[in-house]
Amino acid sequence: MKMLYRLILTGFSLMTASSVCLAEVQVLSQSVPTPEARQPESLAVTRPEPTLGLASEASATLANRDISVAPLVGQLQAPAVQEKSVASYPTYIVEQSKQIAALDDQVRGLISSVSSLSGNVVSLKQSTLDRLWPAIFGFLGIVVGGIINYVLHRRQLTHNENERKEKFSFEIKQGVFEFRGRQNNEFYGPLLVLLAQSKELSMQLHRQLANHDPKRYVFEPEPGKVPEKPTLQVLSANDKQPFRLIEEMPRIGSKLRDLLPQVQVIIDVGVRMATLIEKSSGLAVPTNLKLHECLGLYLAHLAALQDAYNQVKQAGAGKPVRLHTAVFPRDLQGLVKQDYEDINRQIKEWEDKADGVQGGKI
Q: Hey, where are the domains in the chain?
């Protein structure tokens, strides 16, 4: 638009200059005498001056952007100059006339350029929808960007939540793994060792009893046990029963006192077992109620065995004042061994999974 305005102002300047030149030609033609001075006035040069009103009208029309240059071009076209014999005018007048004619041609070219530019301006006008397309695409871009950002944010939140859950689950599994290790290392393992030691010492005592009094103590398979294992049986006049140390303590104290040191060793191992149970029984599997019951029975058996041993050990003592029937719980060793193997199996499974993750198998 600035170029258009500059072209219009240049055209108006050229028109004004041409008008001034025409006016000077007229003045000079009237003041200089020529051989044709007596010719009729109809042969004089008449060239109307362009009016400023026409220029004002064109400026107002272009300012309102309703560019219609065709009527303006028609109005700005200067009327043809009545030709007159060139030889009747001085040379400088003829030259000025030629200059004026050249300026007139330039004005006409400028007017043609203005008309072309006005057509281009009209063609560049955009409709309302065309002007709204950038805003529409911008709005759609904002909406799509917001949706993508929302989806990515939700995915990130879900990923973080899953990661927290996996971390929490891993920490729980790690804590359980460490607890299982403590169960075997601090309770089940040592308890199994002490039970095995106590059993071996008891078997040695049984063999000594069978050697010292074979008529009363014999090894026979215990009925109802599968597989059958020889156990020490106590023979009586009409029956036989499995050997129970706490029940045979009065006879051992009176007739087999040489075996009392062996009984003392068994009691010492039992004291160590009792200390372990009192200190670490919280590591036992809480769902194995039968094991907890057997642990309590063993503590009661040990207390009764110690009391029976103290009675028969006193010098010159007659029959024991207190008799006890709290026998050793035979299921204790099997229950402890079962829990120990289950815990070891769980630990082995976790180790295999960890090796699989490290090796890329999972």
A: 2-123, 170-359
